[in-house]
Amino acid sequence: MEKLREHFSRIRVPKGGDKVYKDECMFSFDTPESETGLYVCLNSFFGWSKEYVAKYSERSGNCVFLHIKRIKRELALCKILCGRRQLDGSGGNNHAVEYYQKTKYPLAVKLGTITQDGNADVYSYDEDDMVLDPNLVKHLAHFGINVKVMEKTEKTMLELEIDYNQRAWEWSRLTESGTKLLPKFGPGYTGMKNLGNSCYVNSVMQVLFTVPNFVERYFANGTSILEGYQGNNPADDFNIQMFKLSHGLLSGRYSVAPPNINLEEAVDTDDLQPGISPVMFRTLVGRGHAEFSTKKQQDAMEFLEHILKMTSCNSAGVTDPGNCFKFEVEDKFVCSASNKVRYVTRPDQYLPLPVPVDEAVNKEEVAAYQARKAEAQASQVVMQPEEQVRAKIPFDVCLSKLAAPEEILAFSSAAEKEVPMQKITRLRTFPDYLVIQLVKFGIGQDWVPMKYDVSIDMPEVLDLSVLRGFGLQEGEEELPETTAPPPKEPEIDAGIVQQLAEMGFPWEACRKAVHLTGNNGTEAAMNWVMEHMGDPDFADPLVIKSDTKSNDTFTANEEGLGMLMSMGFTREQATLALKETSNNLERAADWIFSHQHELDSLLAAQSGAAAPPPQKPNYTDGEPKYELTAFISHMGTSIFVGHYVCHIKKDGEWTIFNDNKVSKSADPPLDLGYIYLYKRVNN
Questions:
Q1: Boundary (domain end) residue, out of 165, 185, 218
Q2: Per-residue pLDDT tens digits for 323-333
Q3: Considering the domain boundaries, does residue 514 fall inside one?
């Protein structure tokens, strides 16, 4: 007790605003349910596993900890229960079925389908079918449910069956739910829990941590990251959380096969591996971001870009592991008036591949299927999943579309006016790892976001020699280097504004959309609206900035500064970002990431000093020949809904990662992916 008294002065009681990390270790994924439990410091309230608690105590001087150890217990539900688990992983957890098996009470009412006229879905588990209850109103009244005040909030079983069968084939193919799969355990085969629409995070990070550059930086050299950490809170440090995630996924510590399991026998993999729970990681990388800070479904490609930007910003003094994805794009512009050319290069880290739906090889079959589908929906007839016909587009057609010249209208310094030009895109360098995104998402004729339901025969071995760019060629003459006249301020087409406003969007937002898209028509303005409708200033009045520099003093928001500086930026860089976005933190985060290679030049220009040349990315280059190593698939009708899984090729065989479920793939759906990762083949 005397020993404890020596440390009483360092014991604190949590106050409002104090965060107590009692659910998982700061450096690992040990929890109170782990074998050795969790130790919570009674001064900092940080949680530590047994592996790290002694080192932390020695370094911090804090010696009093609360040891938390929990035993897993299952809660039994009794009256209001969830439904069946579907083959695709959706639905409930089978609690209603289990309750019936235990009590033999056969009837269940789906609460969300109860209407004021006394109708509802009533299901008999005894008969395994829908039944009619002529005394439903009376029976519900016994439980205190007054149908007169009820409102239908969910789809009926018939409505769900129609919807489900229309997408069941896609879910079954992508998750391989139609077959029993062999579970995988050990290093590199650890699943990740779904924290609520976090499947896009899980899929992207599983793929990233198969790339040697990321494995070396965060896993192999993890000790140096821990030893070099000097921060106040590990939960706010990107490199620490990347180390923690890499260790959780690659060490095998959290992917141990249960006893008495035959790994050569196909079994139900749902509950074999709980997976790690990346709560700290998701909170950190989403902080300050308009989309990733929410619990909504997001675009996996946008998240991959976001992680690569954060990795770059937190790689000061060390090699950025994301360099293996970067390449230089060459855009060649051919003037129709003079036949002279201009070459412009730019950095990129993924290759968007167009999906020309109108060039499907089975258009007649697709049209016939769509007609049958419309007829079935009108008559509420359920179509079977195997009846679905998906548009088939050859990969070579997509590649040819990318390589083909694009007709544009641009200013010619030779003709001194806008003229038609050809824009030809090539790759000046080819990275060690090439990310290809199939541009499957767009806006439908009803202006609703949609996904193109297509099948593309993506090759496992890829040669992109046709895309190699070589710069200025013999016989080509460059356009003169003269400054184009400043673009005229576009007039705001009142007709387009009116069309958008009639769709229900705010008037000022519509004016902004038309102005910022250069008065280029309804489609361009609508695309802008769909991309920015979540912005905090979406409906604010349009402000047209003047070129005149303001001498007004600017005071950066301290909270915003702290947030941006925690991402690895300097105070000066963070201040510039907030100034450029009027102290809007969400916009400042986007701005600073998109301008990270020219921040020094922009700061120098602001101070009047000579601007250093923008920092050029470090490119890898080599033969444009690749083999497929991983792909991420999306199921659902748009990027705002659905589910992501990924397939990764390890030791010559494909493995499917579906959140916490990790299994040997029986039939990888190579033609239905969204993001593909290729690695260079060295001859």
A1: 165
A2: 999 999 999 99
A3: no
pTM here is 0.75
CB atoms closer than 10 angstroms to residue 289: 19
Please tell me the distance from the alpha carbon of residue 362 to that of residue 373, in angstroms, as a whole number.
17
Supply the residues annotated as catalytic: 199, 643
**154 and 205, same domain (yes or no):** no
Domain end marker among 165, 198, 216: 165
Q: Are 563 and 550 in contact (CB under 8 A)?
A: no
DSSP 235: G
**pLDDT tens digit sequence for 184-201:** 999 999 999 999 889 999
3-state helix, strand, coil in the chain (%, to 5): 35, 20, 50
Spell out the residues 6+ positions from residue 487 whose beta carbon is closer than 8 angstroms to its own.
Answer: none
The SS3 assignment for 534 reads coil
- Amino acid 119 reads N
Of 187, 342, 384, 328, residue with least CA distance to 621: 328
Count of the separate structural domains present in the chain = 3
Distance CA 34, CA 136 (A): 47
Residue 337: both structure tokens together: 């008036």
Query: 363-378 vs 157-175: helix axis angle to the nearest 10?
Result: 150
Domain with 25 in it: 2-68
Q: Is residue 20 part of a domain?
A: yes
Dump strand ranges (E) for 441-483: 441-443, 449-451, 454-456, 461-463
Beta strand pairing call for 454-456 and 391-393: parallel
